[in-house]
Write a structure and sequence with these properties.
alpha/beta; 17 helices
Amino acid sequence: MARGSTILLAANVAGWSRLVLRDEAAAVAAHHGHRAALIDPLAEMHGGQVADADGAAGAVGGSLLIEFPDVVAALRCALAWQHGMHARNAEAPTDRRLDYRIGLHVAAAANADEAPPVDGVNLAAKIAKLGPPGGVWTSRAVVEAAAGQGAFAFSPQKAGRATTVDAPPEVFELRDGREAATTPQPRRRPAFIGLGGALAAVAGVAAWLLVPPDAPPLPPLQEETASEAAMALPLPDRPSLVVLPFRDFSQGEAARGLADGLTEDLIDDLSKISGLFVIARNTSFAFRDGSSGAAAVSEALGVRHVLQGSLRRASGRLQVNVRLVDAVGGGAAWADRFEGDATDVFALQDRIALRVVEALAPASTEGKRTRPAADGGGATNLPARAAFQEGWEAFSRFNLEDNAAAVPHFRRAVALDPAFGRAWGALALAYMRAAAFGWSGPLGESEATLYRELAPQALAQARAQGASLAPVVEALRQLNYRHGREPEKRNRGLQDARREAEQALFLAPSDPEGHLMMAWTL
């Protein structure tokens, strides 16, 4: 996708006028309910910004306009939206069901205080109107932007003449590479405990939420409950949780790479929701050995909920078992099992994250977005994610040998996926650390080459992808190599470094690298 572009998602409720004439209050309430429980949380988790559809596109009620900085995020959001609506409509009376039509188009990005370009908005809205209820149609520009970036399939469609341009646009139906977003699939009703009412609204959000007979096991659910009085820290004034490292029961494969990657991505996704308090990855992974029960973890970290999970990958399929424990109230707030194509783990994590948000606090997603999504330019394929994970494991040990060992893994990750923003940021940070701490020897490069050439090149790529590690790298540069000069063994840009650290925490509040950098600037 060209730099300076944005993805516009326009949606409208099919037959809105008919629904309003029959019962306006019920139609409006249903639309707002779908937004609060499904659409807005999905948009936020995928970095989307909900705009004023009426003002921007001249639309009527039942319409939405959402801007995305990344085409993959927009496509995943659209597919998850239609999957979720299929599940929600299955639970609703026939005369109360809403079917959304979604259209996507690439347009020039507007300034932060400006509305999206009218031409682009109008075309996205027209594409939505051309498509069938429950479908997702896109322009050719979206197809070209998404090329090679995920398990998406597009089939050309006839557009008709409903367009504001001279010739009808080329339009394509979006599919997820396995099945159409609107194709009903058989599913078993998931097991709900405690918050069943809230979860029933999004039951079966994925078309492939089947319960495999040999799903990987979870730890036994303990009867002990956490005591608020015994907590090391007071409970936050909002829903709080820790995502414990998922266990991998795969046979004949790397023991932890996929499980750790899924855990980290869930932490990142959940930390983007402004109404949740999520424990950072480094703290969560301190409980990897599983010797502490949910109550003990809750008391040690000062959180109410503990998310546990396990997975197994076999014959190209991925099976995941997930449970959300209410450590204070006792018992499981929610539990479910998922199965899908092992190559589409990113869609799986999106759906798990949405279900967790719904189970924790539907009301927490009703407020306005307070920060942009972190880590734009995430991985789009598993080999790149696995390479990054191996590098990050070494990098996190923070010593000369492991810092050098991490670099080849980060290089492999960006070679496999050039748009992997966090991998570029990690590579830049490893280069900058090597230069700043005198760790350049094992890399075979001088400190000057590392901080003048290699680190800036990787940093530029990280910035282009919107990675939250980019300001961390810049903060380290300001502390040690301000203006590109040789290090003078003292901080040169303390205030500038602090501003960069603040930006890193704004982008990713749960990222320990941002907190570490902030500590160095204080």
